[in-house]
Fold this sequence. Notes:
Blueprint: H1 14-41, H2 43-50, E1 83-91, H3 95-111, E2 117-121, E3 134-136, H4 139-144, E4 157-158, E5 161-167, E6 172-174, E7 189-191, H5 193-206, E8 210-213, E9 217-222, E10 228-233, E11 236-238, E12 244-249, E13 253-261, H6 268-277, E14 288-297, E15 307-313, E16 322-330, E17 334-343, H7 353-361, H8 367-370, E18 374-384, E19 395-396, E20 399-401, H9 417-435, H10 450-458, H11 460-467, H12 481-495, H13 514-535
Parallel strand pairs: 1-2, 1-13, 2-8, 5-15, 13-20
Antiparallel strand pairs: 3-7, 4-7, 5-6, 9-10, 10-13, 11-12, 14-17, 14-18, 15-16, 16-17, 19-20
Helix pairs in contact: 1-13, 3-5, 3-9, 9-10
Amino acid sequence: MELEIDDPLVLFQPRTVLANLFSVFAARQCFHALKSIKRDCLPSLHKAGWASTATVPRITTHYTIHPRDKDKRWEGVNMERFAEEADVVIVGGGPAGLSAAIRLKQLAAEQGKEIRVCLVEKASQIGAHTLSGACLEPRSLEELFPDWKERGAPLHTPVTEDKFGILTKKYRIPVPILPGLPMVNHGNYIVRLGHFVRWLGEQAEALGVELYPGYAAAEVLFHEDGSVKGIATNDVGIQKDGAPKATFERGLELHAKVTVFAEGCHGHLAKQLYTKYNLREKCQAQSYGIGLKELWTIDEKKWKPGRVEHTVGWPLDRHTYGGSFLYHLNEGEPLVALGFVVGLDYQNPYLNPFREFQRWKHHPTIAPTLEGGKRIAYGARALNEGGLQSIPKLTFPGGLLIGCSPGLMNVPKIKGTHTAMKSGMLASEAIFNQLTNENLQSKTIGLDVQEYEENLKKSWVWKELYSVRNIRPSCHSMLGVYGGMIYTGIFYWLLRGKEPWTLKHPGNFSFLKEDACQSLLILVEARAFVAKWQEL
């Protein structure tokens, strides 16, 4: 069941709210009556659905919510962990984490130092959780490996053609890409990012980095003085209901002088660190988007290797930030990577990003490329869209944040790989200086590498993010996305982001009044009732 609403504000009118209240009240009575009938008529089904055994209730919450020392099923289980010591532990095997590991080992080799670097990655293989299809700016790669071509880096498709347009329901309005605008991709490469990350992993391993794929960092460990001690990997051998299996094993503890967190967007360990060290005290709240991506094989006659296409507009309205991309890869077969990005601050609660992506693929200017083709891979990931205004404090005793974990993506470019890699390299240079400083006197057991944040703010990464800081917030005007395009044309193209002001994000849905929120809650309850009705 789906409600079609042309104007979401209709939901917040008093008459509509009253009608919804009456409907939900009646629906609740029906639901409770049907629930009792189901319990009386189908007792065996009811019992089977709500208990895992006859004597022990099912507990599926995480052990951080329901501690194991209060769960009788865990009595007598050996909870001792094996611990390993390293100089640096890196959480996350993406471009940022691998670049940090590589740079550390490069510096150690240059100065004849022995530094143990361990990297844990939740995917079964390095690169397995990285979505293919990206437009890579090679600036950081050239700094990390000037001879990347000789090393066989999988960058096979230089950009040869750039196209940008505004979509209406039936047509496409071409927009010229002027030199200097964020969407210019001259000199960039279209890559299968999973293959690129796997190649970085091979380079890291060759330099002596210890890679541990298949091990997710599940917990942050702390010294008694409050500094980060390291991480613990996930326990294995646990049943679905939270009880230990006969094969249960505790995770591994990895202790380090510095722990680098490169989890990507909205990492669960980084969220704990934000709270413990109050890292977001002096920045705005982060805003997020979702990127949906697919990889297709298409008819070779429609294949244009090196072509990059971006669009805004239909099927989204002007107040919903988002757009699409379509990249033609040259990987030995006619491949295209296509995707759709939607900012998660959209106002219509019934908008479904995945459905909008499917609608976009049926546009008259998009569908012909895909006709006769076959989708061979798909996925999605979260995106940080807050930009410079939402970057938290990056260092704390015993650790630091790099890459997309703090949100270093260039939002208008829809690119974060190059900034993530550079942040990892800068972090490693600062860490190496502290590890090799014989006169260093640290106030905490875990080293506080504040030099990293200082160096990042002096680098081209910070300059790049500063220049585009106002583009995303400018999309919240009455003109929406088109207002952002006008702002970009005037202030970014002419002034290169040097305007003497910084716009703020509107906040966490602060535009909704209290009565509007109540109306939304009522409608959420109604939808939940419909879902329960369908289960009966």
